[in-house]
Amino acid sequence: MAIRVGNWIATAWKLLPNSLWSVLMDAGTRVRNQHGTTQIGQDYANFVLDGGRKNFSVINRPIGFTQNSNPPAGTVADSIIVTDNLLDEPYFGWNWGYCWVFKPADQVAVGGVAGKRVRNPYTGKLTFDSSHKYFRVVDYIRTGSNLSRTYPAGRKYRVAPLSWKGLDIIRDVGDAGWGDGSRLYRQEWRCMQYQLVNNTLTLTIKTNLDNEVWDGPSGMAGTIGADPFLELLVIDMTGYPGVT
Questions:
Q1: What is the DSSP string of 144-172?
Q2: How far is CA 107 from the centre of its chain?
Q3: How far is CA 132 from CA 46, 159, 243, in A?
Q4: Which residues pair with residue 141 across a beta bridge?
Q5: Residue of 3, 16, 127, 147 with fewest CB within 10 Å of its CB?
Q6: Which pLDDT score, from 0 to 100, does residue 92 have?
Q7: Rounded CA separation 139/199 (Å)
């Protein structure tokens, strides 16, 4: 896009102090949202949708209580994954079935007729392209407590879990009866669960109990992990491919 400037404006710019001229040159293209925060800028890694809804490569939950299965094919270290699950406990692994992957704009191919494009002038990397579908963040939450939040009705929301922790608890429930000092144990896990119903998100501390009792040597009882918490983004996915 070319902008033609009259000679009198160009002459006036030449009369500006060098310090102000520098500010004008470095500003680049910037778009602010309704909160006054820069939404699109030359030095921002705006996250964009990479393709449509994807299937995780591992469907069943992996063995182990903090081990995550592999993310979907095509993800990179700085990808953000938005899950299509409306009820889940991320502590148990990347078992989210279907999802959408968002990457920085310069990592997603563009094609077709060129629209509005913004590049970082220092690196040449693409930071915005009008043909992309961009991340629409509605809320950011990091909590270890129960909470509920309601968002504007008539939209389709999904969750992007970012980080989480939980407790793996082994309890001693009595003597195993073998006469060798072995004990009986039962296991439980404490973590955060999210549930998204229409436009209301609820986060709850959940305790999952394994009803199976097993035996082992004395001294196995204890706690592994950390107090439960969940960090996530709430994303407006209205109109995006595969969202129902």
A1: SS-EEEE--TTS-EEEEEEEEEEEEEEEE
A2: 17
A3: 10, 20, 17
A4: 232
A5: 3
A6: 72
A7: 12
